[in-house]
Specification:
Layout lengths: L6 E7 L9 E5 L8 E4 L1 E8 L4 E11 L7 E7 L8 E4 L24 H12 L14
Antiparallel strand pairs: 1-5, 2-3, 2-6, 4-5, 6-7
Length: about 140
């Protein structure tokens, strides 16, 4: 469910390449001058494939009290290591709420568990719908 003036940012990191800490630095300034830092959650997420299991650190930070129609710049990290700067623009105050989830390269040709993973995400995020792309028969 979307709450006006909020934005949740979620990302994955390697377990051995990051601390168990999720932070976002953000500002309305592209150089992140005067940036605020917000703590979030970091948890180990396992992914089981047909031939092996993998685990990554799933990180989430929710920013609150954001101003409508304003562009924000941010970096994600663990307090010591930070991403490149990204940006988003908050919708106008009268905009219709939209929820979406983007799933990029899942690093496997075995998509047998993808439907279950999407359903778990839908339930966890209380989303009203999840985009289910057609899966290619071969990768």
């Amino acid at each position: 469910m979307t709450t006006a003036g909020t934005k949740s940012i979620t990302w994955l990191t390697q377990i051995n390449g990051s601390a168990a800490k999720a932070q976002v630095k953000y500002s309305t300034d592209a150089e992140l001058n005067g940036a605020a830092t917000v703590d979030g959650t970091s948890a180990i997420q396992t992914f089981v494939q047909s031939t092996r299991g993998d685990a990554l650190r799933s990180n989430k930070v929710t920013l609150t009290d954001l101003t409508p129609n304003t562009t924000y710049y941010y970096q994600v990290g663990d307090g010591a290591t930070w991403s490149d700067t990204q940006s988003f623009k908050m919708p106008a105050a009268d905009a219709v709420a939209t929820n979406f989830f983007i799933l990029g390269d899942i690093q496997t040709g075995d998509t047998a568990n993808l439907a279950a993973a999407l359903e778990k995400l839908r339930v966890q995020e209380a989303m009203t719908s999840v985009f289910r792309p057609a899966m290619p028969s071969t990768m």
